[in-house]
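Notes to self, KCNJ8 protein:
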Amino acid sequence: MLARKSIIPEEYVLARIAAENLRKPRIRDRPRKARFIAKNGACNLAHKNIREQGRFLQDIFTTLVDLKWRHTLVIFTMSFLCSWLLFAMMWWLVAFAHGDMDPSTENPSNSTKWTPCVTCVRSFTSAFLFSIEVQVTIGFGGRMMTEECPLAITVLILQNIVGLIINAVMLGCIFMKTAQAHRRAETLIFSRQAVIAIRNGKLCFMFRVGDLRKSMIISASVRIQVVRKTTTPEGEVIPIHQVDIPVDNPIESNNIFLVAPLIICHVIDKQSPLYDISASDLALQDLELIVILEGVVETTGITTQARTSYVAEEILWGHRFVPIVTEEEGVYAVDYSKFGNTVKVAAPRCSARELDEKPSILIQTLQKSELSHQNSLRKRNSMRRNNSIRRSNSIRRTNSSLIVPKVQFITPEGSQSASET
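result:
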């Protein structure tokens, strides 16, 4: 406002604004690493400079299934339309070569009887309609074949064979697209965040997985991989180095019974890539943990696979998942509104290696958590006592306010007499 009114020159205002901007420290966030696997399971990978494009045409059926729906529907429509037009042209040429297009044959004399190859085909439009009737086996009764032309019979057989092939390929492609395995994976959910906490005296990496459908996944198994950028002792840089980490499963077959949401646990031991990582180092780590769940769909028998990943920002240290399975009237109920909820628990901030070298850290942490738990119980009890005392005082005040006060009566002689009602 002052600069517009020419009270302060514009040059001074601009210089002052620039000086203030220079004084303010500029904090730039650390650039986020690109995920290898998205949260919905899609692979974040782009294929470029592929020279051998002809390999996709050699496996045409898989190429059609992998296409997007709009491209598949366009190919579906154009394949039938082009085949109808192609054979319509052939029927028109057969009729033209036989002379069925001659106007004199439309109303022949009584002496000579003209027999066309296909009745009522005297233009390209009628030939196109007859081509549709032959390929989709629709007969309206107006146009039909005769035994006059062997060439027409050959075209009829050829069109039937080509039509069956197109129907088999296109309908099979549509069926495979609607019954793809990743469609079933849409109802397999993972927790948005993973946690690291103490379980059975060990530091563990945990996440939750669940199935929204009642139809189960048979022989379901869970695999965890750590993807990170590494450099070999020879100086070779591996941008995507995959390392399998074991899953703590007491079942020998390594299969899970996914009838209800489960918490998958990985014990951070000496073989784990997370063995040297502490709570302070976790935010600085450039790693990604990929979770893969595989199994067979009970209703269709198709093998399905669900994927997700967790980066360092999505791992909560010192948290635990809240229980969501309860028993209500003889039925186990699952509350999916609390599927990803966590609660903060006591956990050492050091790495698993330091915890193995100094077991006293775990004992001190547990003792501190026990003391904090007792203090919280004392505070809760004191708050309850204070609330009860306040309630009793408020009740007494209300009762005292309901008592009728004493009333004094003044006699004519000037003496006072008090009576209580």
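- The longest helix spans residues 360-402.
- DSSP finds ten helices and 15 strands in the chain.
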